[in-house]
Amino acid sequence: MADADPHQQFTPSETHDMSEQATSSNKRKKLLTGIAAVVLLGGAAYGAWYAMVGSHYVETDNAYVGADTAQVTPMIAGQATAVLVTDTQTVKRGDVLVRLDDSDARIALASAEADLAKARRQFGQSTATSSALFAQVQAHRADIASARAQLNSAQAAFEKAQVDFDRRRQLAPNGAVSGDELTSATNALAGARAAVEQARAALAHANSQRDAASGNFAANQALINGTDVTTAPDVLVAEARVRQARLDLERTVVRAQIDGVIANRTIQVGQRVASGATVMRIVPLTQVYVEANFKEGQLAKVKPGQPVVLKSDLYGDEVTYHGQVTGFSGGTGSAFALIPAQNATGNWIKVVQRLPVRVSLNPAELAAHPLRVGLSMTAEINTSE
């Protein structure tokens, strides 16, 4: 190839082309230099922003709306005669949800009320019995006094018969007393002795009757002593049974315990439900929260009470919720799985774990834009506060 001649002459068009190429090259260099400068400035600005602002925020889109739902469970068994709500229906606390057949409950209440009336009558009878038993004790005391008087009379008669018998027995050998008189005195003495024994037996019998009456009186008094018809144990037991029966009757009407929306209704009219069986749930939409699953590396600076900004996929970026961190789960989701992961193997691969963080929401914002359980959310925590 021949060397270019330094004295070679260029045409005007060739000279113009070479000038344009030089100008274009200079522009390209300036453009690339400007772009590089912009990239460097942008990187520096981002670094400064991240150091001062961005590093204080952690964000996740692995967040979902949750709520502590209320299970509706009848307290007694029975057949459903009416189901007054359906799924998605809004209810207020105290609204009637289900009515159960109350025939058995009404019969049980009537039986308990009858038992209560019987217990009150029996207490009155026990009170009257105490009065009668006390009168019997007093009567037996009078019988004892009479028996004691008869014993004293029989004792005096016996002593007189004894004196007569002794006198006649002493006079009998001298012939001053006939044999018939001695025999009569002997018979009179035996009769007097028998009368004394009979009087003693009567006195003992009166004493035993008095003791028996006193025991019956004491036993009856032990049942009613220190009580009245309102505090007697049997009456209290009967009243408790009446209250239980009345409560069972009230429980045939199943009411909502909280405000919310009906979900998972499984009961139908005519179905017999067991006590404690879940027939539906109530979701409290004004008390929902968010479970945000953050990566373990994001939680070093996260603490309860820090503010959280949330957005829902339901409303998009147009609606922003504000809340705060209320606590952390006791373990990761995998730790509480039915079959926990076993990492003690030779082919173990580390998997970044996520920990659920509970976030409470502003009630006023929830009222303005209600959420449903299970909806997806995006949560951003400000860790600088």
How does this model look, in words?
This protein is of the alpha+beta class and 385 residues long. The protein folds into 3 domains: 55-68 and 284-382, Efflux pump adaptor protein, beta barrel domain (Elongation Factor Tu (Ef-tu), domain 3); 70-102 and 257-282, Beta Barrel (OB fold (Dihydrolipoamide Acetyltransferase, E2P)), CATH 2.40.50.100; 105-247, Helix Hairpins. The protein has helices at 12-52, 103-171, 179-224, 233-250, 363-368; strands at 57-66, 70-72, 78-83, 90-91, 96-100, 253-255, 260-263, 272-273, 280-283, 289-295, 307-312, 316-328, 354-361, 376-382. β11 (307-312) and β12 (316-328) form a beta hairpin. The longest helix is centred in the middle third of the chain and has 69 residues, at 103-171. The model has no long low-confidence stretch (mean pLDDT 83).
Provide a quick synopsis of the model.
The protein is of the alpha+beta class.
> What's the CATH C level of the largest domain?
Mainly Alpha
Helix content range of the residues, please?
Answer: 40-55%
Our count of helices gives 5
> Poorly predicted ranges (pLDDT <50, ≥5 residues)?
none
Mean pLDDT: 83
Strand content: 15-25%
Biggest beta-sheet profile: 6 strands, antiparallel, barrel
